[in-house]
Amino acid sequence: MSAAYASVDDLRRAARDYLPRMVFDFVDGGAEREITLRANTADFESLRFSPRVLTDASQVELGTTLLGEPIALPLAIAPMGLCGLVRPQGELALARAAKAAGIPMALSTAASHALESVMDAAPGNLWFQLYIFRDREFAKSLVQRARAAGYRALVVTVDLTRGGKREKDIHNGFTVPPRFTRRTAVDLLRHPRWLARMAPHRGQTLGNLVGWGGQDSNVVALSTFMNTQIDPGISWADLDWLRAQWDLPLLVKGILHPEDAREALARGADGIIVSNHGGRQLDGAPSTISVLPRIADAVDGAAEIILDSGVRRGADILKALALGARACLIGKAALYGLAAGGEAGVMRVLAILRQEFDVAMALTGNQRAAAVRADTLLA
Ligand SMILES: Cc1cc2nc3c(=O)[nH]c(=O)nc-3n(C[C@H](O)[C@H](O)[C@H](O)COP(=O)(O)O)c2cc1C
């Protein structure tokens, strides 16, 4: 992996060159006018540090704990579906890179690879992300499989009662079922490196769902079936139901309101993930960094808060910690690395974020990731 990749933005450019337009847009795009997608990064950029000097920056401790486990950096990889479309190794490569960097990864229900194979590839601090399906028995069986395989936390995603309207995907025919046109064929042919890597792996699938509802491993049939199974009727009672199924840490992902944070914790969640799904769902939802202070006030130290959506820099991680998060997740940033260089590319992204976080910690006068000063940002 070339050392010339100095930032996540550099890896994004490499991903855009490497991936067919339809796959890049699936990874990179947001819902509707992408107002929230832009706000996620713009609102991080608008925050300013209030640096302190002469604090002895010779020993900056970047490691911390999350859900009771030591982690090397206050970061984890977000759950993402269909990573096998970016590189055939998909989630296996992401999990190996996360393990090498000493951070957790959450595996999506809609992952290309089955949860057992991912745990085999990178045994360690893996979390499983669940969508609650209409077929509760199947949802329950996924939870049991995750427990049996050794997953250490369950993440339930609650912001998908409808699929967000991602217009780039519609234009590109990247829909369920897909719409193949002359344009998509030309798009694929213009990305021969991607095509050559994918060709021997034509059997794309949704590894966790194979066999469900009488479906075989055909990715189109499985995705179509999964879409009919997304339950728009989920409510707080389902969180109670899930809590009863799972005895390890439970995180609720997709919280943007302080009252919802309180309710989730009152019902037994161990932590919350402040997320707008990377701007892929409700366009016009607030950026996560803008609502974090109110949510942190409401939680008042009673549980750990994780934040995702828009994290592209080590400085963003520090900004989130200063406003009350314990750690951040990265979604797209990890996939840019995966596209650009497979497992080594993901490791490069994690190394870049680690270095930037260290610089931001030292230059703001912070010494420990576990105890970032609240006055790290200008009021
Ligand atoms: C390609 C892609 C697929 C995703 N699939 C899922 C998913 O299956 N489950 C889920 O909870 N979130 C999913 N997400 C959202 C991420 O978990 C995360 O919330 C988001 O990517 C964070 O924003 P960022 O991409 O700006 O870092 C997906 C995101 C991307 C980019």
Order of strands, main sheet, comes to: 3-10-9-8-7-6-5-4
Average pLDDT: 97
Task: Tell me the total number of β-strands.
Answer: 10
Output the helix-strand order. HHHEEEHEHEHEHHHHHEHEHEHEH
Bound molecules: flavin mononucleotide
Count of helical regions: 15
The share of residues in extended strands comes to 5-15%
The H-level CATH homologous superfamily, spelled out, is: Aldolase class I
Low-confidence stretches: none
Give an overview in words.
The protein is α/β, with parallel strands linked by helices and 379 residues long. It has one domain: TIM Barrel, CATH 3.20.20. It has 15 helices and ten strands. The chain has helices spanning 8-18, 21-28, 35-45, 90-101, 115-121, 136-149, 167-172, 182-189, 192-198, 219-229, 236-245, 258-266, 288-299, 314-322, 332-364, and strands spanning 64-66, 69-71, 75-77, 105-107, 126-130, 153-157, 250-255, 271-274, 304-307, 327-330. The protein has an eight-stranded parallel sheet with strand order 3-10-9-8-7-6-5-4. Strands 1-2 form a two-stranded antiparallel ribbon. Strand 4 (105-107), helix 5 and strand 5 form a beta-alpha-beta unit. Helix 1 (8-18) runs antiparallel to helix 15 and helix 12 packs across helix 13. The radius of gyration is 20 Å and the shape is globular. The two termini are 40 Å apart. 51% of the residues are buried. The mean pLDDT is 97. It binds flavin mononucleotide (FMN). Flavin mononucleotide binds next to helix 2 and helix 15.
